[in-house]
Amino acid sequence: MRGKPWRGMVGGMSTPASPSDGLLAIDIGNSRVKLGWFANPSACVSPPQTTALPIASSPLPEPGETLSGSAAELLAGPLAEWLASLPAESLQIAIASVCPAISEPFETAVSTALANAGIGFTVLRLTNSAAPLTIDVEAPALVGADRIAAAVAANCLRLADTPVIVIDIGTAITVDLIDSKGVFQGGAILPGPTLAGAALAERTALLPKVLPGELDRSPDPVGRNTEAALHAGLYWGAVGALRELIARQRDRLPRPPQVLLTGGAAPGFARLIGGPDYTVRHVPHLTLAGIALSATMVDTAPVSDPPT
Ligand SMILES: Nc1ncnc2c1ncn2[C@@H]1O[C@H](COP(=O)(O)OP(=O)(O)O)[C@@H](O)[C@H]1O
Ligand SMILES: CC(C)(COP(=O)(O)O)[C@@H](O)C(=O)NCCC(=O)O
Ligand SMILES: [K+]
């Protein structure tokens, strides 16, 4: 997270990557690692958009191939197989990690798999100090790289003079505000529903664990057994927290924000957290796209508007 972005060869590879072979974005989260291969990650050069019309098609780069799972699942086989199947002879790799313990073994596994497949590569570990946006918080270097990557992507979807609230529902939930000039202002962090359920199971004698993927999309708020009550509390509790945080952040804004939603547990929440003057758009690959954009923009102009 700290220091200069590191760009160089890893694993003794001798074939340098050429940008034309595409970019591999890696998002190392606390539950899952997400990988996306972008054939053509184009820099977001002319943000923000100047039209107030609804966005018909995303200007974000879309990954041509994706892979996700826990680090252990991926390292057991799928990672090497997937990397070897990429239509590339050389790759630029960009990594954003919020889980340092996983970063090194995962990078080593990626290096080994690419070496075995005869694919050359360079590696860029994203740091906040090189991020193509202004981070206006007490300690910019300490903000999660995933939050910053998502904010970079959000800046590309941002309409002119319009603030954005970015919500990521993963292990944790983050609700971050990017102001109408594209500056990251900070936000809120709370447990994701799966983590909240796991914490309840761990710290109580009688509550069972609610497994990932088992959360109902619209549970009865009056659960008639323990599991049903947990589903009601975890789901509607998260909905309520999100609605309140968006509303309170919106209260500070001079005009309605765009609201973008991402993260592994995001499906099922978008339709419930819209407000009187804002709608919510679900962008599944927001963070991966932000990582790809950050890598292409790391040596170019910032996305956020220059200070006036
Ligand atoms: N089908 C699903 N329904 C609800 N939650 C899910 C589903 N699949 C994954 N999740 C949850 O999404 C979270 C992982 O999302 P992700 O964005 O990858 O998190 P992280 O970045 O923290 O690793 C986990 O808490 C997991 O339980
Ligand atoms: C808030 C997070 C735990 C979210 O991680 P995730 O749920 O995506 O695994 C992560 O962004 C993080 O560790 N951040 C560092 C502290 C901060 O952002 O202020
Ligand atoms: K995340």
UniProtKB/TrEMBL annotation:
Q: Which InterPro entries match?
A: ATPase_NBD, Type_III_PanK
Q: Where does substrate bind?
A: G144, A145, D146, R147, T226
Q: In which pathway does it act?
A: Cofactor biosynthesis; coenzyme A biosynthesis; CoA from (R)-pantothenate: step 1/5
State which Enzyme Commission number(s) the record gives: 2.7.1.33
Q: Does the keyword Aminoacyl-tRNA synthetase apply?
A: no
**Top-level taxon:** Bacteria
Tell me how the cofactor is bound: A monovalent cation. Ammonium or potassium.
SUPFAM superfamilies in UniProt? Actin-like ATPase domain
Per the database entry, which stretches of residues form a coiled coil? none
User: Which Gene3D superfamilies has this protein been placed in?
Assistant: 3.30.420.40
Binding-site list for ATP: D27, I28, G29, N30, S31, R32, V33, K34, T171
Name the chemical reaction catalysed here: (R)-pantothenate + ATP = (R)-4'-phosphopantothenate + ADP + H(+)
Please tell me whether the keyword Transferase is annotated for this protein: yes
Q: Where in the cell is it found?
A: Cytoplasm
Question: Any idea which positions bind K(+)?
Answer: D168
| Function according to Swiss-Prot or TrEMBL | Catalyzes the phosphorylation of pantothenate (Pan), the first step in CoA biosynthesis.
| Oligomer and partners | Homodimer.
Sequence similarity: Belongs to the type III pantothenate kinase family.
The name on file for this protein is: Type III pantothenate kinase
This chain's source organism reads Botrimarina hoheduenensis
